[in-house]
Amino acid sequence: xxxxxxxxxxxxxxxxxxxxxxxxxxxxxxxxxxxxxxxxxxxxxxxxxxxxxxxxxxxxxxxxxxxxxxxxxxxxxxxxxxxxxxxxxxxxxxxxxxxxxxxxxxxxxxxxxxxxxxxxxxxxxxxxxxxxxxxxxxxxxxxxxxxxxxxxxxxxxxxxxxxxxxxxxxxxxxxxxxxxxxxxxxxxxxxxxxxxxxxxxxxxxxxxxxxxxxxxxxxxxxxxxxxxxxxxxxxxxxxxxxxxxxxxxxxxxxxxxxxxxxxxxxxxxxxxxxxxxxxxxxxxxxxxxxxxxxxxxxxxxxxxxxxxxxxxxxxxxxxxxxxxxxxxxxxxxxxxxxxxxxxxxxxxxxxxxxxxxxxxxxxxxxxxxxxxxxxxxxxxxxxxxxxxxxxxxxxxxxxxxxxxxxxxxxxxxxxxxxxxxxxxxxxxxxxxxxxxxxxxxxxxxxxxxxxxxxxxxxxxx
Amino acid sequence: xxxxxxxxxxxxxxxxxxxxxxxxxxxxxxxxxxxxxxxxxxxxxxxxxxxxxxxxxxxxxxxxxxxxxxxxxxxxxxxxxxxxxxxxxxxxxxxxxxxxxxxxxxxxxxxxxxxxxxxxxxxxxxxxxxxxxxxxxxxxxxxxxxxxxxxxxxxxxxxxxxxxxxxxxxxxxxxxxxxxxxxxxxxxxxxxxxxxxxxxxxxxxxxxxxxxxxxxxxxxxxxxxxxxxxxxxxxxxxxxxxxxxxxxxxxxxxxxxxxxxxxxxxxxxxxxxxxxxxxxxxxxxxxxxxxxxxxxxxxxxxxxxxxxxxxxxxxxxxxxxxxxxxxxxxxxxxxxxxxxxxxxxxxxxxxxxxxxxxxxxxxxxxxxxxxxxxxxxxxxxxxxxxxxxxxxxxxxxxxxxxxxxxxxxxxxxxxxxxxxxxxxxxxxxxxxxxxxxxxxxxxxxxxxxxxxxxxxxxxxx
Lengths: 461, 461
Fold this sequence. Notes:
Chains A, B: Pfam families: CBS (PF00571), MgtE (PF01769), MgtE_N (PF03448). Two copies of one chain form a homodimer. By secondary structure, chain A is mainly alpha-helical. In chain A, 66% of the residues lie in helices and 6% in strands. Chain A has helices at residues 2-11, 20-31, 35-42, 47-56, 59-69, 75-80, 83-92, 95-103, 107-114, 119-128, 131-141, 148-151, 165-174, 200-205, 229-239, 259-277, 290-316, 319-324, 327-355, 364-394, 397-427, 437-460; strands at 158-160, 184-188, 194-199, 223-224, 243-247, 253-258. Chain A has a three-stranded mixed beta sheet. The first copy, chain A, has a three-stranded mixed beta sheet with strand order 4-5-6. In chain A, helix 21 runs antiparallel to helix 22 (437-460). The first copy, chain A, starts with a helix and ends with a helix. At the A-B interface, helix 1, helix 2, helix 4, helix 13 and helix 14 of A face helix 1, helix 2, helix 4, helix 13 and helix 14 of B.
């Protein structure tokens, strides 16, 4: 696989990474305070790439660049900028540029832009909007964070359920205002309950007299405005949705979510999963300051310090044994480390399976048994290897037996802990990804040291 | 965050997990060999949920279910089924059902279905296709695995660049055949080079006389047929693409990729990242057998066994020191464990930043310096704590100093290793996610034990 990727890297030219030469040229233009050249260089870039540029250059360069080029910033760039530097960029913009930039955005993008800002910055942006847009944004902000209500756009194209293709096309032609991107027409009953949707492709390829109701899609699914955004992303991926109507508690249509927003959520969820798994606060970004980064990473290190001390206390109970056979001190970390690795493997599979809803109450029992079997087989295999190593390196058959037995015990514990800890968190409605490796490695450290030193005390002393 | 999620879980009803009661009822119907009831129960489910059902039940139940219900399987269900059980399901189907099922699929779905099958199964499916479809699928299979060519569908809706809106609409009306889902019309020049695209929404809302060229989208981007699929997924997410034309080496249009396929790739890439990070073979699934799972997990455990033995050799060099001060044996795992955790944090951030192209050659130097600073600050903080613990618990100020110094050294090494190892792999065109935690924790184990026991030997003995 690694070789394959290398080969693929050779044959492809585009990898979408910001060109390092271009970044250098831009920084030179900033250095020279040459704003005409800066505009020439940045103008061909996509908004998302401009945002990446702002994130990747240093703080001093960024401030200088914004002074020279800030009037060119538009709403699309603002929505792409990472939260870590968003406030800084907004503060650096002249009020009129900011107002202009946000007025061109759809309601969901404005919500996304301002939901994490401080009160005064929120006010500045809301104040720039027209009354109707402002009301729409404020309404969206009343929905809980990370809910479908925050994610949806309120601009929706609907048609009465009794219309024909011809009526729908005439309506679209006549309509002054339409969203930038839309892929379906949502059919609604007189009380604004969505009853189905029609893709624009079907609409275009059907005769004018065909009733819309006859060409609706099977994939139709509504989403509750209070649904958690992670579940919304899951539904889009699972059911291949392109857009989905959002409904309130009375099943009335209040907005629509499109797949590009769902994809962004899926990406953010994965970032959160991998960072949590490694014990990093989820809001981490390369643009964070050193102190910000320290603040994100310290809590789990503190937890780990506590648990490492528990393992130390376990070991110190056996100091007499270690004094008698000092080789035990060198061998005990092997048992602990193997347990930690096996537990992390099992944990990663379980956390991922819970996220994709493929580990459920229907198959949990079978999965736990499978993990126990895997742990036992791996345990036996590595017990034999390490038993042999123990015997050959230290000339003591019984030392080999102790090492092998401790290995077997710890690998079974590791495999079980890796799957049971996240299952338990899920049962208590907590995020299973919170079971960062720290928990499992603590367990395998403690059990590993205890089993090895305990057995050594019983058998060797 | 945990509390927030719990609250959200309460207020939402749908979480898209297969209903456990339904699964029980289905298994009862299988038990009773009641195929009419089975059809009633499964019929309302989405194809993706039927696939999940087949994956989640045990092997014996699955075979019994397929015997009773296999004739109902359609192509959509086949494409959703996890690779781990796909061969088994295909083998269980009567030939005529299989042929019927694949004939209704788009070319990209057939490719996806058969690319990992054995030769005879591939032949059985290809043989069921009509000649034109078979040729299209065989052509796609000539592109490298994990390339855009495998991902694209060959069914494309195009229009000559000089057409008007009216001409395009008349063409769509008259066309017998159109893909199930399409969102854009791709404009091509006479030599089939794509020159732009028009969304169906713009087409519908524009007057008949408007030239298509006047309403093309700014977001237009072509994708090379040899582009790696992970980069394709990145481009869709980064540039908010909904569909993108795929071109060959001569820039000629050969197919189109839609966002739902890109989203599935993004999801699979993330799965691979988190599993590799934890040292699991990437093709892992809950439907794998016990032996399959052992086979996936053993290689990294073997690597870890080797490296753990290196750490043991380091420790055994200091057996004289440990014999003299047995407390060192209890304290040394604390230093190693803190280093392992800090290194894993730094590694997760770096691997993720490389995947999102936010860690580049332009900012690598700054990021490495930042990590070193973070390591130093955390190192000082934990050095002070552990120094104090060492002094208070063991009454030796110098033991506290040794513990603190080793902690500081190891946390700086951990932070640097976490970012330098994946950067180096990337430089050599290897996948940075290969730098599973194992590498970094080995380094921090070895350095941690060496620094702590070495300093103890110098200062305390």
